[in-house]
Amino acid sequence: MEDFPIRIRTSADKPYEEGWPRELARRAKNGELLRIRHGCYVDAQGWGQLEDEQRYRGMLAAVTRSARQVPVFGVKTAGVLWGLPRPALPSDVQVMVPVGSGRKSGNGVHRITVDPSHLDITELGRDLVTGKIQTAVALALTYDFPWAVAVMDRLLNAKPLPAELHPQPVTKAQVAECIEDLPSGVKRRKAWRVLSFADGLAIYPGESLSRVHMAELGFPAPELQHPVMDERGLVAKADFYWKDHALVGEFDGRGKYMKPEYLQGRTPAQAVIDEKNRENRIRATGKNVVRWEWNEAVNPNALARDLTKAGLPRLSRGA
């Protein structure tokens, strides 16, 4: 984890000043400081200006500062640190502890017992976390199927995770090894179902959720990242493509018109114009285009309406 942007003050900052803990408590009482964990305080105004994920990371920093030994973050907390997809921020901080340690959950920390011999630990910045494959498998067992697929798709995608400094591609075979190490047949079957459906060509959660809902609704399986060509060359790599129906599907997350890595120096308005020109070139090749946004990606009925209106038939009524 990068250094937290707000200083975390604790009684350990001035161990030889007997009045320092009382000073911190006094400043918290008058609203200058905010206690975010027992013995851990931050500037109240600065905390109020942080986004939710920054506050969550602040809690992780506070847990680390107050821990007797360096914690190993796991499951949902590790997912946040790796940058894997999630439906929401965790409600607590999840820490892995050895079986028989006697350490109980409480005060916003959920301690998950594990056999140390089965624990893969990786260092991310100043934090210790479960390895990215082990983390993804744990999330696949925790989330519902659409979000589990979103996690696994992102893990298998060639683009490095936000926390990675260097690409470390993951194969399905590597994930399978981790799944086989799970302690029960129920967990192995659940994880295998997710891995079997996962496809590393998908990268954004909206794409993954959409693909799961398509299958559940009984629509034909799309080809992912299909190259669309015209006389000028490559027009686009379509998020979804149905050859038999000459139909291109595009998930439009709002971030693609706002995030610097997508805009690449363009204004949002120019990005919209470029996207429209791109769509016109696709249609000129004789293909139809259907677009949907986040609301449709998380709403199967809305997605079904858009796909049906675009002429995509349902092969079955789905699961």
Largest beta-sheet characterization: 5 strands, mixed
Q: Please count the beta strands (DSSP E, at least 2 residues each).
A: 12
Roughly how much helix do the residues carry, as a percent range? 40-55%
Within the largest sheet, what's the order of strands?
Answer: 6-5-4-8-7
Q: How confident is the prediction overall: mean pLDDT?
A: 92
Shape: globular
End-to-end separation: 41 Å
Organism: Arthrobacter pigmenti
Protein name: Transcriptional regulator, AbiEi antitoxin, Type IV TA system
Descriptive overview:
The structure is a single chain. By secondary structure, the protein is of the alpha/beta class. The protein has 3 domains: 1-54, no CATH class; 67-197, no CATH class; 205-309, Endonuclease, Chain A (3-Layer(aba) Sandwich), CATH 3.40.960. The chain is 41% helix and 19% strand. The strands form 3 sheets. The chain has a 5-stranded mixed sheet with strand order 6-5-4-8-7. The protein has a 4-stranded mixed sheet with strand order 9-10-11-12. The protein has a 3-stranded antiparallel sheet with strand order 1-3-2. α5 (132-142) runs antiparallel to α6 (145-156). The longest helix is centred in the last third of the chain and has 17 residues, at 268-284. The radius of gyration is 23 Å and the shape is globular. It comes from Arthrobacter pigmenti. This is Transcriptional regulator, AbiEi antitoxin, Type IV TA system.
